């Protein structure tokens, strides 16, 4: 039992670290009204098992904390960015009750995260005074592109690793 808990903690710590590293390396395009946050591809891990969500949420929390002043979004980024991730996972989990196929779950997840990106558009409006609808369109576009591009990558990763088994063994 203790080994399973330790393994879950280690796997989610690695996911959080990956989220931070990937976002740090691509920070020039990970923030603002036009953003392609490549680390968002890790959201798809949730489609394999909800336990992966812990690492992704931790990664978002760390990234938005570290880049809080550099992005110009301050505390807004913690509240709205983290809220976006948590709310999107919660809504996706509801859909997953009737969707068992992992690939379909990834498409559902891409749709939910992209629609829910309105929270980030509100953040950009409040923090930077950017127009809501334009920000929503731009962030929606970035999110859907990244998440759709992530589906074949996560499918290939799953073939190599078996993501469901990894977190449950």
Task: Walk me through the structure.
There is one protein chain. With 169 residues, the chain is an all-alpha fold. It has one domain (2-159). 75% of the residues lie in helices and 0% in strands. It is built from eight helices and no strands. It has helices spanning 2-25, 45-48, 53-66, 74-96, 102-115, 118-128, 132-161, 163-168. The N and C termini lie close together (11 Å).
Strand residue percentage: under 5%
* Count of strand segments: 0
Order of helices and strands: HHHHHHHH
Bulk shape: globular
Q: Roughly how many Å apart are the termini? A: 11 Å
Keywords: Membrane, Transmembrane, Transmembrane helix
Organism: Granulicatella adiacens ATCC 49175
Pfam family, one: QueT
Protein name: QueT transporter
Question: Which features characterize this protein?
Answer:
8 helices; mainly alpha; globular; 169 residues
Fold topology:
Blueprint: H1 2-25, H2 45-48, H3 53-66, H4 74-96, H5 102-115, H6 118-128, H7 132-161, H8 163-168
Task: Provide a brief overview of the structure.
With 169 residues, this protein is mainly α. The chain has helices at 2-25, 45-48, 53-66, 74-96, 102-115, 118-128, 132-161, 163-168.
């Amino acid at each position: 039992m203790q080994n399973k808990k330790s393994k879950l903690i280690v796997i989610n710590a690695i996911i959080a670290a990956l989220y931070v590293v990937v976002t740090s390396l691509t920070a020039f395009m990970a923030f603002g009204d036009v953003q392609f946050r490549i680390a968002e591809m890790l959201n798809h891990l949730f489609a394999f098992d909800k336990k992966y969500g812990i690492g992704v949420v931790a990664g978002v929390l760390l990234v938005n904390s570290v880049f809080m002043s550099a992005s110009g979004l301050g505390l807004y980024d913690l509240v709205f960015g983290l809220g976006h991730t948590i709310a999107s996972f919660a809504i996706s989990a509801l859909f997953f009750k009737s969707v068992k196929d992992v690939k379909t779950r990834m498409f559902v997840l891409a749709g939910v995260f992209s629609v829910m990106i309105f929270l980030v558009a509100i953040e950009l409006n409040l923090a930077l005074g950017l127009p809501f609808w334009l920000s929503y369109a731009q962030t929606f576009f970035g999110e859907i592109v990244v998440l759709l591009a992530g589906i074949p990558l996560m499918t290939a990763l799953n073939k190599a690793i078996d993501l469901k088994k990894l977190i449950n063994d």
